[in-house]
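Fold this complex.
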Amino acid sequence: MTVKQAAQAWQFNIPEEEIDRIAPVVEDVTAAIEKILDRDLSTIDPLPHFHPTHR
Amino acid sequence: MDLTITELAPKIERGELSPVELTRHVLDLIEKRQPRLNAFITVTAEHALTQARQAEREIQNGQYRGKLHGIPYAAKDLFYTKGIKTTVGSKIMDDFVPDFDCAVIEKLSAAGAVMVGKAGLHEWAYGITSNNPHYGSIRNPWDLDRIPGGSSGGSTSALAGGLCCFSLGSDTGGSIRIPASFCGLVGLKPTFGRVSRYGVFPLGHTLDHAGPFGLTVRDTAEVYLAMAGGDSRDQSSVHRPLTQPKFGPEPSLAGRKIGVPENFYFDHLHPEVEAGVRKAISVLGDLGAKLIPITVPDIEEFNTVARVILLAEATSVHEKRLRERRGEFGDDVRALFDQGRFVRASDYLNAQRRRRALLDGFNDLLSQVDAIVTPTIPVPPAKIGQDTLVVAGVEHNVRLATTRFMRALNLTGLPLLSVPCGLTSDNLPIGLQVIGRLWDESGILEIGHAYEQATDWHTKQAPIVTE
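Structure:
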């Protein structure tokens, strides 16, 4: 799904020209997230001790 | 007049300096310089004089409360102040008047400090330039054509411009350390949970910290100690004993181990920043610290982790406003909030999971050294309106270049200090960042203070102050 399609599907009501401006950034972030997903994070629970300093 | 707390407090205590006269002096300076600096959104002259008169009465009656009693300060305009407008740098909240003080303001009022105004900031604290479309661009006192950094740019413009004796900021991705470095000031981001955020308007709930700016490390420590402490109204805050930093009469770092990264933090630096920071590190060595080369975790990856978390958290704060009052956001922050709407919940949670690895990595390093030093920012402050800059022949986006050493560290919650450590040939400040162990604010303050005792960068003043 493209950024534009996602914005429509989720009814974000973002004007088209603004979607065009942010789309490359959203795609960059999405690509960067892939690197995080390459790691095995299954044993790490982010909740309920939400912040690392509160372990 | 020397506006350091260290200089003023004993005079106030002895009755040699009137808090009312000091406050009037500061308010006069604000009247003269505010048109050029645009540091404040609201100047609270009457409120300040009322607080100053009370301080004067109390001191005359022998009820001296401590070193902040009668001392004028500025608060970033996202700290809630009872009966005083709190805009968060936004148009949407331009008429919002809280009916309570945030925890930090409560503490400073109890210490007898005098609030002279609410300082400007990047809209919603979501940016590093402090170019605010609703309240105008805030100016750097060192060069009025340049940004003061942000988001707490008004707090540092005011302090470096001689318009208060200390100020308050918040730091989600560098918003204390960036403006401290760009304005030649000391800035402390305490450990996550050390300072209550009750009544501090949020940007990213798991990344936000409140902290002080000072003209010296000693001043910054005084304010930090007054602000710190757990608070049942902020469940992320922690009740832990506070350690007073030990500031010796002679500068010495004998017995301390300081880590110096061999990777990442010295890549793509402006050459004059690198020279200033390398010189500062050699001073730490001269003071007796053992300098230990270290390798830090993959900061680029964790900058992405921080970006995902902040995009999601910031948008969660503003989703309703974005739907209902979209046209009242500035273009740059609206784009960021829109980007945050595309972050999936599972990606946010995986970013939170990955975050643990960074803290583990830094905790491991900090079990081998007492602190780690880096440049605060790789580049000097950009000109207002400048979008890109060139470092070593490579063009960089100003926002990304400025925050490169910042964002990942907010994931860790570690205490972070920026101290002035030089000036470029254009007379622009350079900062040294000191990273400490969890809850060891005292350790990094002691390192910063020893550095200050051995150098004179903290005594340099912006041109607008000396003219």
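The longest strand of chain B covers residues 416-423.
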